[in-house]
């Protein structure tokens, strides 16, 4: 991973070459504990949130449509997993997930600036991480919202399909084992069919 140097009021900070800014880099340097990166599902949820916020802000008349469009374009790149290496922060943070919220804001703003023809070394960016990407938002709201979006997507895209597959397979096994007796029971148990057991398991997974 490549870095560039930037002089800030707090001293020399090393920034990610592509999209990083000082807050993101300071978090990486200050929380060198554990290797558990923020889950991809949270980053994707933030991209959905930033995209929706840009649309809402434009509808409210507080964000120009050209800024909305470029923010949405970067969010789509995040959702397409094209910028995964720009989210290095671990789950160990302070406060309400501010660092991860700002990480996404920085990536959106700097990538948008580059797509618009600018350079990361430009003193002034065409898209501001706080005034544009994070407009009308607070980490106190965005992180819980991202968690809800991520949880919903996991339930709909992974958990429920897996339970449906389990339900269907148990149904198939129940039919396949029809009439077969469970063997190796102790003397105090009568023989019962395997299909009755699999049907019981099947009933534990609702339609």
Description:
The protein has a two-stranded antiparallel sheet. It contains seven helices and two strands. The chain is mainly alpha-helical. Helix 2 crosses helix 4, helix 4 (98-115) packs across helix 6 and helix 6 (139-176) packs antiparallel against helix 7. It starts with a strand and ends with a helix. The chain has a domain at 3-137: Fumarase/aspartase (N-terminal domain) (Fumarase C, Chain B, domain 1).
Fill in the keyword field for this structure.
207 residues; mainly alpha; 2 strands; Fumarase C, Chain B, domain 1
- Gross morphology is elongated
Structural class based on helices, strands and sheet pairing: mainly alpha
**The CATH topology of the domain at 3-137 is what?**
Fumarase C, Chain B, domain 1
Give the name of the CATH superfamily of the domain at 3-137: Fumarase/aspartase (N-terminal domain)
Q: Number of helical runs?
A: 7
Helix/strand order: EEHHHHHHH
Q: What kind of sheet is the major sheet? A: 2 strands, antiparallel
Q: What level of helicity do the residues show?
A: 55-70%
CATH class of the domain at 3-137: Mainly Alpha
Looking across the biggest beta sheet, what order are the strands in?
Answer: 1-2
């Amino acid at each position: 991973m490549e870095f560039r140097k930037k002089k800030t009021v707090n001293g020399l900070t090393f920034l990610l070459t592509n999209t990083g800014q000082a807050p993101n880099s300071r978090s990486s340097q200050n929380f060198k504990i554990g290797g558990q990166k923020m889950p991809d599902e949270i980053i994707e949820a933030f991209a959905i949130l930033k995209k929706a916020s840009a649309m809402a802000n434009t509808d409210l008349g507080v964000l120009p449509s050209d800024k909305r469009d470029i923010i949405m374009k970067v969010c789509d790149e995040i959702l397409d997993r094209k910028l995964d290496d720009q989210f290095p922060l671990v789950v160990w943070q302070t406060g309400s997930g501010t660092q991860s919220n700002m990480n996404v804001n920085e990536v959106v703003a700097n990538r948008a600036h580059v797509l618009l023809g600018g350079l990361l070394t430009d003193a002034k960016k065409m898209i501001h991480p706080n005034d544009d990407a994070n407009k009308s938002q607070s980490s106190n709201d965005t992180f819980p919202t991202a968690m809800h979006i991520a949880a919903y997507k996991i339930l709909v895209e992974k958990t429920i399909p897996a339970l449906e597959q389990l339900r269907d397979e148990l149904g198939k096994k129940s039919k396949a084992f029809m009439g077969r007796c469970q063997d190796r029971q102790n003397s105090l148990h009568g023989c019962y069919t395997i299909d009755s057991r699999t049907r019981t398991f099947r009933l534990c997974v609702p339609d």
